[in-house]
Design a protein that fits this description.
There is one protein chain. The protein contains seven helices and two strands. By secondary structure, the chain is mainly alpha-helical. The chain has two domains: 70 residues, 434 Repressor (Amino-terminal Domain) (Orthogonal Bundle), CATH 1.10.260.40; 63 residues. A two-stranded antiparallel sheet has the order 1-2. The longest helix has 48 residues.
Length: 140
């Protein structure tokens, strides 16, 4: 199984061209074109960039698993051991993708909590007399 993307379907309404999309994703234009043409596989930097470029879409909307191109062999039928190994590999890949999607969501929540804390601190500092804090601290 390999990871495929749907970002090119979403691109038309959000970005004027693939160069603009590449810039927002933080990757090269050539990488965008190679992924679109199937000449390059999707890596972590591409996934992170896609999530950044399409923040309103879920991971599952942007990416999906697809079977790899079939390999032609001389065997009349595959052994059941090979079939079982392929099934386990597919399940393992799916679990890894689900874990990655969950980790990305958790990281987004973590970043939002830091942003909220910084905003609260800025409000506190803008309404508090810094000199009075220093004087109060000196009494201890």
């Amino acid at each position: 199984m390999i990871i495929r993307t749907r970002i090119f379907e979403f691109c038309d309404g959000n970005y004027t061209n693939l160069s603009e999309l590449a810039q927002v994703m933080g990757i090269s234009v050539s990488q965008i074109y190679r992924v679109r043409e199937g000449k390059r596989s999707i890596n972590q930097k591409f996934i992170v960039g896609a999530i950044k470029a399409f923040p309103k879409h879920k991971f599952e909307d942007l990416f999906y698993l697809a079977p790899e191109s079939p390999i032609v062999t001389d065997y009349y039928r595959q052994d059941s051991i090979e079939e079982e190994a392929a099934k386990e590999k597919t399940e393992s890949t799916q679990q890894a993708l689900e874990h990655f999607a969950s980790a990305v969501d958790e990281y987004g929540q973590h970043i939002r909590s830091h942003t909220s804390a910084i905003a609260s601190l800025n409000i506190f500092l803008s309404t508090t007399d810094i000199c009075s804090i220093g004087q109060a601290g000196a009494k201890f």
